[in-house]
Write a structure and sequence with these properties.
One of its GO terms (cellular component) is bacterial-type flagellum hook. The protein is of the alpha+beta class and 645 residues long. It is built from eleven helices and 29 strands.
Length: 645
Amino acid sequence: MAGILDIGTSGLLAFQNSLNTTGHNIANAETEGYSRQRTLLATRTPTLTGVGWMGSGVKVADVQRLYDDFLATQVRSTQSAASELATYASHASNIDDLLADPNIGLDPALQDFFDAVQGLADDPASMPVRQALLAETQSMVDRFHDLNRQFTSMQEQLNQELTAATTEINSLAESIARVNQSIVEAIGAAGGDDPSDLLDQREVLLKELSSKVDISVVPQDDGSWNVFIGKGQALVMGSTPATLATRPGAADVGQLDIAFTDLTGSHVITNQLSGGEIGGLLSFRQDILDPGQNRLGLIAIGIGEEMNRQHRLGVDLNGDLGTALFKPSQMQILANGNNLGAATATGTILDSGALTASDYLLEADGGGGYTLTRLADDRQWTYSSGDVVDGFSLTLSGAASAGDRFLVRPTRLGAEMLTLELNDPRRFAAAGPLRSAPAPGNGGTGSMTQPVVSDPDTLSTATNITLTFDAAGNRFDVDTDGDGVADTTLAYDPASDSGGKSFTLSGFGDPEFTVSGTPQDGDRFTIAFNRGGVGDNRNALAMAELQHVDTMLEDTSGNGTATFQETYAQLVSDVGSKTRHAEVNSKATDGLLERHEMSLSAVNGVNLDEEAANLIRYQQAYQASAQVIAVASTLFDTLLNAVRR
């Protein structure tokens, strides 16, 4: 009788545990990260009797956590990739919207500026036209400044997001370390049994951490998990967490680096991190934000340098040679904060048409030599002070220690520093600086085109050049200083050259002109400074033509050239392409993440219908076990009554 009672009692206890587990599953059906559990039953040790082994009931063997480590690892890995792409696409979309917007983008401002320059060419003496050009020029400058401020603001926002992300990572690392400790203690207290709810809690923390940065985990024998980031940096070792922090970059204090600190010390690991929100932010900064601001500066420098050069080749309404329209740009050169030597570096932009949008790294070898690396494609030059590379030159002074570095940014400040120098509309130099004319007494059919100059540094308001034809020598005698004596000669044979022959004089702006026809002996032509050329529009036409001239490098390798607007269009296209690519990949990765989560949910998710069926089944088994106890009680009472009789 006692055997039946024992068996019934074991059934009651076993199915009570089963009911408890089922109830626990139902109660946590909506709990994030919960893995369903089930009670595993086993037979108790049978009893040997005279007729053989007799069963002695049931016992609870284990409460099993349904979990698939492979699927969970896939979920974490895909979560990291999805977060990285979502962060990248979100920030890239902001830049894309900014640059492509027809109201706040640069292209409309460039077009309005060149339209105003063309208006000056159409009516060079009109003050309203000149006022309009002054206004449109300032508007273009303001647009460059506004766009550059947006890039700078995004740099600051990215720094803030990096700081916030590292703070969250530190919090998660501390939580994982505490849960690790709790798991180790719980396993020890239970004699080796896993604490399922604590394991679920750790899994939730790991998934959240993977959304911030790519991680890998290594299980330990005591039940704790070590967590690694980057190139093997141990973020969590058992119950000991490391920390991340942001600090001003050694190369550029305006950009934050990420430092890793553990018991061995602190070091920067920015270039070693990938995945998650951190990876998305760093990739966005490297692929879009920095190159975009550089290219915007490149366009500003190109417009400033080319317009300045051409404007200085003209004459304004006051009869003066043109001056610079825009303030010359300066290069940004940043000494690394870890430099030990006393070397300094300054830079000069020599040719805007040879500039690229890349940054450069200048590194000292300690023996007085330097290596210059173009970071866009890692091309290197052995560099000495004064060498010209990609349109700029560096002046180096002081002694450098081996490994000292300088970050060279030829175009980063271009948009910020673009400043309109001219504030008087009369000072727009629309006229050509020199004009040619035949002498009144010429008897031949010779003619000369208006000279085109190319060197503003040798232009002079005192220019007065006379070309006198010598028929016997088939040449022009050229008097460049007005003393009546030929300083040079130009060969011209009317028999073969009457269709037109081009000449270029050295100095005086290097004027280029063409002589045609058949001049008579002694016919003269003069080239003089164009004082009073109020209605002359030659230089304004040349400035307007710059809109269509390929003055900018098309890419870093120098393959091809492009106009200002084409260069900007390339920037918009490049950002748009990368944004679209990131958005497509983000959607695909989100779909993959959803599939992995569904696969994992099929293993560890709570199905309420299944749990309801289990609840009924275990309830019936519990009631049947109670009935066994009732039968045992009845049999026991019958035996007692029989003994009393």
